């Protein structure tokens, strides 16, 4: 029992020694002229976060802010021993209203300040081959039967009967983006697994190209149905390029991470 208290006392001394050593190091660091300069300038480079916008059952992603990490910035500038804004290191600061604390809401589009859109394929077909051959990233709805590991496209669990099994496969292969493209049957399952709920902004079929073209804008999420025509897809891609929009995977479109 005596040895137990000896070890306990030693452990407590080590913890407090580490704490006070760290405190002393911080005090010394904060007196360094370079650190003083970084602390004086940091507020000029911090960027405020932008809250997500909630409209009833729907949500539009916000945007993380950036806050200067003074200690890491100091270590970056230490060798040149002078303040240089290009060596500043930032921490991402999540907005107060974000996707992560509103997963019961439905994402209907990406952040409109980013000139990006996303495409979702209902199945792997000629359209998928065209996008892949032209290095265009998209998402594809998959079931346990159609899922392929290391697919060129981001896979989205669309299997009502075997949702959990497919989730396990996606997790095992580190490919799960935790996104659901909603239909009435999937909503409750996706809410149970705390996935992001997405409802496409636009849906391209075999007879509505003109309408879809007209309504494409920053943040659009376009579902390409299995009966959409390849000729329409080619025209759609030209329209997207004409509007100077980047096509990105859905996980990137709805991400609130501040772009690097």
3D architecture notes:
- By secondary structure, the protein is an alpha/beta fold.
- The chain has two domains: about 1-95, no CATH class; about 105-255, TIM Barrel.
- The protein has nine helices and 13 strands.
- The strands form three sheets. Strands 6, 7, 8, 11, 12 and 13 form a six-stranded parallel β-sheet that branches. A five-stranded mixed β-sheet has the order 1-2-5-10-9.
- It is elongated and about 65 Å long.
List the helices and strands and how they pair.
Elements: H1 2-30, H2 33-41, E1 53-55, E2 58-60, E3 65-68, H3 70-77, E4 90-93, E5 106-107, E6 116-121, H4 126-133, E7 139-142, E8 154-157, H5 163-172, E9 179-181, H6 187-192, E10 196-198, E11 202-204, H7 209-215, E12 221-224, H8 230-242, E13 246-247, H9 250-253
Parallel strand pairs: 2-5, 5-10, 6-7, 6-12, 6-13, 7-8, 9-10, 11-12
Antiparallel strand pairs: 1-2, 3-4
Helix pairs in contact: 2-3
Pick out its properties:
260 residues; alpha/beta; TIM Barrel; 2 domains; 6-stranded parallel beta sheet; 9 helices; elongated
């Amino acid at each position: 029992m005596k040895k137990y208290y000896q070890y306990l006392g030693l452990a407590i001394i080590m913890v407090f020694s580490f704490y006070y050593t760290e405190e002393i190091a911080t005090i010394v660091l904060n007196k360094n002229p370079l650190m003083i300069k970084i602390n004086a300038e940091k507020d000029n480079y911090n960027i405020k976060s932008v809250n997500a916008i909630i409209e009833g059952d729907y949500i539009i992603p916000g945007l993380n802010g950036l806050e200067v990490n003074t200690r890491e910035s100091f270590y970056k500038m230490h060798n040149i021993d002078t303040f240089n804004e290009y060596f500043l290191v930032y921490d991402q600061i999540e907005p107060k209203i974000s996707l992560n604390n509103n997963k019961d809401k439905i994402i209907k589009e990406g952040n409109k300040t980013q000139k990006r859109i996303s495409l979702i394929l209902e199945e792997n077909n000629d359209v998928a081959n065209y996008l892949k051959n032209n290095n265009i990233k998209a998402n594809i709805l998959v079931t346990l039967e159609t899922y392929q590991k290391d697919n060129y496209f981001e896979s989205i669990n669309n299997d009502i009967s075997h949702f959990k099994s497919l989730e396990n496969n996606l997790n095992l292969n580190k490919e799960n983006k935790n996104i659901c493209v909603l239909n009435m049957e999937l909503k409750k399952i996706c809410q149970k697994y705390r996935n992001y709920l997405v409802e496409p902004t636009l849906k391209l079929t075999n007879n509505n190209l003109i309408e879809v073209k007209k309504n494409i804008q920053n943040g659009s999420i376009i579902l390409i149905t299995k009966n959409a025509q390849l000729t329409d897809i080619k025209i759609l891609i030209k329209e997207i390029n004409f509007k100077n929009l980047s096509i990105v995977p859905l996980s990137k479109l709805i991400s609130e991470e501040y772009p690097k």
